[in-house]
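Folded chain entry
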Amino acid sequence: MTASSYTKMLKQLITKPAIMKRFLKHNKPKDRKFGINVHTCERCGRRGGHISKYGINLCRQCFRETAIDIGFKKYN
């Protein structure tokens, strides 16, 4: 079950609390404590290519777009 189908089912079960409780017990995605899915980009929400050094918390694509504004210089 994908995350999108999980949320679609939750919307349908809002009026039935007993069934929704049982559904959540068995079908809710588990909370991640470590790994690639823990960190997300603060700007776009991507999970891959995350830069957390210096407390930046951006994906690599957003970092390239905003690096000059943040104060980083490109050396070539």
Summary: Helices lie at 3-12, 17-27, 60-70. The first helix runs from residue 3 to 12. The chain has a mean pLDDT of 86.
